[in-house]
Write a structure and sequence with these properties.
With 565 residues, this protein is of the alpha/beta class. It has 21 helices and 13 strands. The chain is globular. It holds the Pfam family DUF3492.
Length: 565
């Protein structure tokens, strides 16, 4: 844990709501961080504590936001913070902890692929029929399939809702108890004990012998070690009347530990679907060796390397555990709510709360626009693969051919993935677009939006991007890939909403030709452009205001705090 920055609660003081924030506010800029800032500022009567979870401290040199006065505590935890033992002492390891860990691993590995309870787990599957036995990639990670087919299989085989939650709770209880009561001891057991070595080698022999043991060992060690960092964090985090986690993943695992160890409500808000986004990243990750041989061809995951499957299933397991603990489980639109249920969330706990923006902040920007439609396309977002910046760059080649003099601005930080950013710069040069595509880095959106003719999103994954709403409020139509609820934002979510008209265009993912054509059509037809501008302004002012969103979260917090004194 890094100490010293931000306010601190004194011993005995209690926060109202502790936000568990993985890789976001207040050290990383972006849409989710902006949303967190909105929530805190919009609810001054709530005393917030912030727990930031990052990869390593060298990437969080400064606060990106000025903390509002109702933030009463900030602490940081880093996944790279592993014990640096000067002298490793031989230890046998706690037998009971390892037995319970085996049972939990077996259960999680069985999700979606098994019908009979693992021998090491005594709970038994409620109402489970005779199904085929699981095929394992490893002891911890069962052989996978596509994201969709795995979830489909789990619906077909596993009990849902309270039955499934009860079974998972039974397997989780002793593991959580051990990790929260003695996090340091459990961590050293995992890293240095004979029982841990035996568990890893047994599972390698039973399910992964055809693959490199060295790769297997370090894969298991790398994915599990941060869980003990989270257990240590759970030990130190000050008291809170409720916890609110903004993703599943490691933060979700921490939320699950806190919920179960302290019997305090856990709220989950997912902007995107964490497991889906990690899967996209893992399939593109270069740090997983290219010689990673495909795992078993099961359930549609054929052709995907064994170790990539292990990581994908690991994050799915973290999601399962988070869903089992959280109530309510919030998403931003019906599509993601359905995805959460598909991935194991109890439907009765799920709800949709759309985001909103501060209209008063952006409406004055309309008066700053010059006459006519600026020949400038803007992509406002981080320069990372999930934003598919390369498709935007290729789009600009199409636009520049049709409308010479048009510029494409990429407005966002580049430090998160320097290698990808370098590839984007190289692509601009390679396509001869120097001077046409400009990298502006992080900028205030208020300075950029009045200068744009179109706001363009080429992302391959989004939920409900705030930048679309902000652009609407500032009078800028949008061309977007068909991700998340962008179609609802641009075309309308209901019959009444659709009657307002379209506020831009929706195109296929990773289709620079279609994106370029849609942009050119709007830029060349001012009548259509102004109609889109009017539709965007009307829609955001009617359905997506900050006041509406704040009222919804005030009710969520009142419900959680009311249930906990």
């Amino acid at each position: 844990m890094k100490t010293g920055r931000g306010p601190k609660l004194r011993p005995g003081e209690v926060a109202d709501v502790t936000l568990l924030l993985e890789g976001t506010y207040p050290f990383v800029s972006g849409g989710v961080s902006s949303w967190v800032h909105q929530i805190i500022r919009g609810l001054p009567e709530i005393r917030f504590s912030l727990v930031f979870i990052g990869g390593s401290p060298d990437k969080t040199e400064k606060l990106r936001y000025e903390l509002p006065p109702n933030v009463v505590h900030l602490e940081e935890h880093y996944l790279s913070d592993v014990p640096k033992e000067q002298r490793v002492v031989a230890r046998r390891g706690d037998e009971a902890f390892h037995q319970h860990a085996r049972a939990l691993h077996d259960m999680l590995a069985s999700v979606g692929t098994v019908a009979t309870p693992p021998a090491s787990w005594s709970g038994g599957w409620p109402s489970m029929g005779q199904q085929r036995a699981p095929r394992r990639v490893s002891g911890f990670v069962a052989s996978g399939s596509t994201f969709e087919s795995l979830a489909q299989a789990s619906r077909e085989v596993l009990p849902q809702g309270p039955a499934r939650g009860g079974a998972l709770a039974e397997a989780l209880t002793p593991v959580v108890s051990a990790m929260t009561k003695n996090p340091h001891g459990c961590e050293r057991d995992f890293l240095f004990s004979e029982r841990s070595w035996e568990m890893i080698t047994e599972r390698y022999e039973s399910g992964a012998r055809e693959h490199s043991f060295l790769e297997y060992f370090w894969c298991v060690r790398s994915m599990h070690t941060p869980l003990f960092v989270m257990a240590r964090a759970a030990e130190s985090i000050p008291p809170s009347r409720a916890f609110h986690v903004i993703s599943t993943g490691f933060a979700g695992f921490l939320g699950m530990l806190l919920n179960r160890a302290r019997n305090v409500p856990l709220i989950l808000t997912e902007h995107g679907i964490y497991t889906k986004e990690r899967r996209i990243e893992l399939l593109q990750a270069s740090w997983i060796k290219d010689e990673d041989l495909p795992g078993e061809s099961f359930g549609g995951m054929s052709g995907i390397g064994h170790f990539r499957q292990m990581w994908i299933r690991f994050f799915e397991a973290l999601g399962t555990m988070t869903y089992a603990a959280a109530n309510p489980i919030i998403s931003l639109y019906e599509g993601n709510r359905a995805r959460q249920v598909q991935d194991g969330a109890d439907r009765s706990r799920t709800r949709v709360l759309v985001n909103g923006i501060d209209i008063a902040r952006f409406a004055p920007l309309r008066a700053k626009r010059t006459q006519g439609v600026p020949r400038v396309l803007g992509l406002i977002g981080r320069v990372v693969p999930i934003k598919d910046i390369k498709t935007f760059i290729r789009t600009m080649r199409v636009v520049a051919q049709e409308l010479p003099g048009t510029e494409g601005w990429i407005v966002g930080p580049e430090e998160e993935d320097p290698n990808y950013a370098a590839e984007c710069h190289d692509l601009v040069k390679g396509l001869g677009l120097t001077g046409v595509v400009k990298f502006l880095g992080f900028q205030k959106v208020e300075d950029i939006l009045p200068k744009l003719g179109l706001n363009v999103l080429t992302s391959i994954s989004e939920a409900q991007p705030l930048v679309v709403l902000e652009a609407f409020a500032a009078g800028v139509p949008c061309v977007s890939s068909d991700v998340g609820c962008c179609r609802e934002l641009i075309e309308g979510a209901s019959e009444q909403d659709r009657a307002i008209g379209t506020a831009g265009s929706i195109v296929k993912i990773a289709d620079p030709e279609a994106t370029g054509r849609a942009a050119v059509e709007l830029l060349k037809d001012e009548r259509a452009w102004y109609a889109a501008q009017k539709a965007g302004i009307t829609r955001v002012e009617r359905y997506y205001t900050q006041a509406q969103m704040i009222d919804r979260y005030r009710a969520v917090y009142q419900g959680a705090l009311g249930s906990n004194g």
